[in-house]
């Protein structure tokens, strides 16, 4: 590898020198023509590189959108199939007692809620892309928002036999936030933490103050994210498609949504992850005189 670099450096030094020496033997007018041609070649080459990169980016985005359509179709079909099956069983009275009937109705309700969440996620992202998403900021306790969100997520935790631990710092300043969208962002992080955990389903939420930010950490013991993908997972439609995560359901919109919400609150979201050891997502919300009060 070092030899290759040395050769490239030598070429970058020698070629211009040889070229200048070659041009110097011509008349002034010929030199002007040669420089014009070289300039045109350089412009055409640079333009070709830019166009290639743009085409590559568009092709990548088109592929992601195609994968998104396939994924969303699958996510819609699965609950609809389940709902249809249990409705047929109820219509044909294929149940033994009221307990079975109630169980079938609970499944239908659960799948309907799943569809509603999926549709809401897509509609929210459409608002984001069209810059039409509205926020309703109020003074809120971030710890209370977290506890409220964990309460909403309890059924999914119970269903997946997942334990959750909250270590919430006391005396955090109240923040000027839209608690509904912050809650939705946290639900996305919690859902990913559970979805990408295999045997050890355990999630930890921490809050603390760091560098004029309130930090909210969501930590799991899941499959982890390869370093190469960590820079891209917040892009719309991007999904890690490796052997461990390819079978997990998802649209590729959740983390893009989290990033947008964080930035709308003058903050950001970061990730630290190691394959096989889990991930830590940190939502940082800026503390300022305009956005907080003691």
What labels describe this entry?
single chain, 294 residues, Heat Shock Protein 90, 2 domains, 5-stranded mixed β-sheet, 3-stranded antiparallel β-sheet, 7 helices
Your description of this structure?
The protein has helices spanning 2-23, 28-91, 98-129, 142-159, 179-195, 227-230, 254-264, and strands at 138-140, 163-168, 174-177, 202-210, 213-220, 268-274, 278-286, 292-293. Residues 4-15 have low confidence and may be disordered. By secondary structure, the protein is of the alpha+beta class. 20% of the residues are buried. Helix 2 runs antiparallel to helix 3 (98-129), helix 4 runs parallel beside helix 5 (179-195) and helix 5 (179-195) runs antiparallel to helix 7 (254-264). It is built from 7 helices and 8 strands. The chain folds into 2 domains: 1-97; 138-293, Histidine kinase-like ATPase, C-terminal domain (Heat Shock Protein 90), CATH 3.30.565.
Helices and strands in order:
Blueprint: H1 2-23, H2 28-91, H3 98-129, E1 138-140, H4 142-159, E2 163-168, E3 174-177, H5 179-195, E4 202-210, E5 213-220, H6 227-230, H7 254-264, E6 268-274, E7 278-286, E8 292-293
Parallel strand pairs: 2-4
Antiparallel strand pairs: 1-3, 3-8, 4-5, 5-7, 6-7
Helix pairs in contact: 2-3, 4-5, 5-7
């Amino acid at each position: 590898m070092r030899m290759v670099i040395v050769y490239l450096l030598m070429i970058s030094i020698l070629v211009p020198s040889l070229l200048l020496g070659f041009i110097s033997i011509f008349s002034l007018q010929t030199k002007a023509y040669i420089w014009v041609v070289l300039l045109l070649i350089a412009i055409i080459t640079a333009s070709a590189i830019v166009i290639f990169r743009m085409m590559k980016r568009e092709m990548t985005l088109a592929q992601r959108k195609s994968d998104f359509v396939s994924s969303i179709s699958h996510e819609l079909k699965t609950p609809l199939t389940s709902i249809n099956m249990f409705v047929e069983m109820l219509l044909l009275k294929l149940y033994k007692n009221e307990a079975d009937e109630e169980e079938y109705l609970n499944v239908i309700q659960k799948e309907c809620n799943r569809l509603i969440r999926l549709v809401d996620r897509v509609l929210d992202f459409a608002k984001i892309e069209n810059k039409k998403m509205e926020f309703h900021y109020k003074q809120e306790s971030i710890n209370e928002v977290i506890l409220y969100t964990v309460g909403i997520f309890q059924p999914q935790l119970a269903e997946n036999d997942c334990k959750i631990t909250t270590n919430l710092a006391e005396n955090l300043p109240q923040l000027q936030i839209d608690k509904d969208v912050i809650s939705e962002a946290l639900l996305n992080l919690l859902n990913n933490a559970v979805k990408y955990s295999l045997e050890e389903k355990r999630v930890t939420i921490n809050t603390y103050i760091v560098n004029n930010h309130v930090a909210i950490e969501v930590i799991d013991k899941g499959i982890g994210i390869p370093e190469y993908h960590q820079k891209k997972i917040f892009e719309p439609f991007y999904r890690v498609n490796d052997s461990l995560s390819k079978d997990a359901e998802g649209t590729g919109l959740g983390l893009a949504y989290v990033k947008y919400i964080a930035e709308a609150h003058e903050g950001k979201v970061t990730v630290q992850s190691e394959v096989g050891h889990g991930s830590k997502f940190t939502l940082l919300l800026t503390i300022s005189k305009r956005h907080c009060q003691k």
